[in-house]
Amino acid sequence: MITLKSSSELDRMRVAGRVTALTIVRVLDEMRPGMTTLDLDRIAERSIRAEGCTPSFLGYRGFPGSICTSLNDEVVHGIPSRHRVVREGDLLSLDVGAVYEGYHGDSAVSVFVGGRAPSEEVARLVKVTESALYEGIAALQPGGRISDIGHAVQGVVEPAGYSLVREYGGHGVGRALHEDPIVLNYGRPGRGPLIKPGMVIAIEPMVNLGSAPTRILEDDWTVVTADGSISAHFEHTIAVTSDGPEILTVASR
Q: What pTM did the predictor assign?
């Protein structure tokens, strides 16, 4: 069931979103080649708790980390580890969630460790994935349909020559980290639930340099590309207002 959020609920979600975004900024500010993904996880947890929130992901369905850290061919749900070192040129997808007074914020970015892409091809993949996110956000308009979002995302990614991950997608956000509706990153427009003010949606394109299929590693969490190609991931939590979409996962307003 899709729940519409009240103004007071949206105020709490703005706090959760701000803390989520601020945590991403802090992790990226401190990240250096040679650190482990567990180091990044600890930075994130300290940041989230310092702002009066708790990590959304820690313990969620048994997930052991406070954030997800996915490297290179890892699409999503990478588990932070003291054995996983980030190296110059790695593509890190950082997925962060924070809970404030029972309400979640959820956001992800893909960045190059050390600030330099290993190739122009991979740099373009990241730019296209981020552009697809913002096209999806622009399609989140009152009176539209949920499938308009995926249609907009697909219209950016596939003409650029990349593959969309189809097993995973966006979702509603609120008191639960994952709520209705499911938001696919592909499809025809004009289908699915009506977009209404009060909805809060996480839009998150996952885009592969190679083919679309994925598989899950033996840890039962980490999703990787089936062909070993690089994957990028971006996400924002967005509220639908009468004036259009409002991105909640921003560090300042």
A: 0.97
